[in-house]
Amino acid sequence: MADIVIPDDYPVVMGASSAYRQWVENTPVTYYPSLPGSEEELLKRIRDFDIVVNIRSSTKFGSSVFAACPRLKLLSIWGTGTDNVDLAAAAQHGVAVVNTPGVAAVSIAEHTLMLVLAVARRIVALHSQVVAGQWPRGHSIQLRGKTVGVIGLGAIGRQFAKIAEGIGMRVIAWTMHPNPALGFRLVELDELIRTSDVISMHLRLSPETTGFLGPAEFAKMKPSAILVNTARGPIVDEAALIDTLRMKRIAGAGLDVFDVEPLPPGHPLTTLENVVLTPHCAGVTPEVLEAGLAMAIDNVSSFLAGNPQHVVSPK
Fold first, then answer.
1. 232 catalytic, yes or no?
2. 105-277 fold
3. 3-state DSSP call for residue 51?
4. Active-site annotation holds for 93
5. Catalytic pick among 232, 246, 267, 290
């Protein structure tokens, strides 16, 4: 029987799930309800195990971790992003990496629409003014008939595009792996950036996508455009975005992800009136939590049965 460890469940999600409780009734699992805090502590927790189920993207699996864990054969990740894992090093050391694609697509797509609406309708500013006893008047943006540019047509991007179509927006898209069968009008990136009223980011973070939107792209956007990012913070050049928002060269931004998380107190983004900020919570609902954690466990069972599912390959 393989030795299994969960080294990083803080704040506790796996340990509180029904999928986990059912799993441990018949499967021995070593479980830590706290973050490792350092690579040294992570190695202490996982060195003697065959399988690691990883809950937090803050726990990093670099080449030195794989080199120090010769027993490790499977890293099962809760979530879609693998930017905390050196996939090439994992493959080099014979470690399969699996994730839980698609389970959060609906939740993140809904959250993306919420951010678009919140920025377009100035919800945060209007709420604060009404609470303060004011009765403000001002311009909001109607979305019906506007063009939304979706960058990345994975499960989340496609789901958001469908929702945007459902409220009457015109959808155009750019993706790294274009396929007309995806069902949306594909355009060149430059056209998307220049013509979109809303731009929504749905790319996986990688060396290729880090800083994907920067000063040159912001300079091409409409002054009335809204940027939404529910993917990963570093996909957007944060300093360039802050400068663009501060100078009001675009209308606003809705952000669920940041370069540094949690967002440090006094961060420049917190001083701007044309942003809506949420704490990387787009995919955190009870439905998503349970489905994703169950899939992370099922991925272990599939691997042990000789039929690995959702394997992530190095680029």
1. yes
2. Rossmann fold (3.40.50)
3. strand
4. no
5. 232
DSSP letter, residue 181: G
Residue 276 phi/psi, 5° resolution? -125, 125
CB 50 within 8 A of CB 26: no
The catalytically annotated residue of 280, 287, 290, 310 is 280
| CATH for 4-101+285-304, options being 3.40.190.10, 3.30.413.10, 3.30.70.100, 3.40.50.720 | 3.40.50.720
Q: Which among 39, 165, 261, 290 is annotated as catalytic? A: 261
CA 40, CA 266: separation in Å to the nearest integer? Answer: 31
30 neighbors 4 (Cβ within 8 angstroms): yes
230-260 as b/e, with b when 16 or more CB fall inside 10 Å?
A: bbbbbbbbbebbbebbeeeebbbbbbbbbee
For the chain, where do the domains classified as CATH 3.40.50.720 start and end? Answer: 4-101+285-304, 105-277
Q: What is the pLDDT of residues 114-171, one digit of tens each?
A: 999 999 999 999 999 999 999 998 789 999 999 999 999 999 999 999 999 999 999 9
